[in-house]
Write a structure and sequence with these properties.
about 220 residues; alpha/beta; eight-stranded mixed sheet; globular; NADPH binding; about 40% helix; SDR_fam; oxidoreductase
Length: about 220
């Protein structure tokens, strides 16, 4: 049975991914600060220690779960949101949090992929459409997501360290905090799209960012140039 990782599998989108892929017959490993009892296995992350120490502990746990097996996919949906410009009271604190939640988790996911993803496997990260432009009212969030976008391009390039034939992308939802619900992209739609990329039923060019925009309850996924 194929195994995959959902990094952030105890969050809102992550829980939907865990349930979706389990319903399709995959064995799902959740990586998060807390357990998701719907997952087949849980690897608990920690906010203490350096990035290197956190990554080492997670990789050790994954290794013990897999043995000689490899992962078919890694879906990193860990992250969060915080606003603020450079003069905001908590600017540095919130920026550090954004980097930890989005950049560090993506770097660890990439490291897991280099060690445990099968040939031709899939790694997906989570970006943001807003981070393709200036984000003066949420600088920490913007720079964190922009770094994730850059990481996708790095990992898709030759000699990135990923196994041969692997594909990497990031899904970029449109950030609309005040929008009607019919303009929010549902987690279920994202799960179905990611499954299509995993199975090859939907075309995906490695290194491309994928926008997810919903209008009037209709969602369109588009690979960006």
């Amino acid at each position: 049975m194929s195994k995959l990782v959902v990094y952030g599998g105890a969050g809102g989108l992550g829980r939907v991914l865990v349930q979706h892929f389990k319903s399709k017959g995959y064995t799902v490993i959740n990586i998060d600060l807390v357990e998701n009892k719907d997952a087949d296995f849980n690897t608990l992350a920690s906010t203490s220690g350096s990035l290197s120490e956190q990554g080492h502990a997670i990789n050790e746990s994954i290794s013990s779960l897999l043995g000689t097996e490899k992962l078919c996919g890694i879906f990193c949906v860990a992250g969060g949101w915080a606003g603020g410009n450079s003069g905001s009271k908590d600017f540095l604190k919130s920026s550090e949090l954004m980097i930890h939640q989005s950049v560090n988790s993506s770097l660890i996911a990439a490291n897991i992929a280099s060690k445990h993803l099968q040939t031709g496997g899939l790694l997906t990260l989570t970006g943001a459409l807003a981070a393709l432009d200036a984000t003066p009212g949420m600088i920490g969030y913007g720079i964190a997501k922009a770094a994730v976008h850059h990481l996708v391009k790095d990992l898709a390039a030759p000699s990135s360290g990923l196994p041969e034939g692997c594909k990497v992308t990031a899904v970029l939802p449109k950030f609309m905090p005040d929008a009607d619900f019919d303009m929010w992209t549902s987690p279920a739609e994202i799960a179905t799209q990611l499954e299509g990329y995993l199975t090859g039923q939907l075309p995906l060019t490695s290194g491309k960012l994928v926008s997810a925009v919903t209008n009037g309850g209709v969602t369109k996924f588009e690979q960006l140039e």
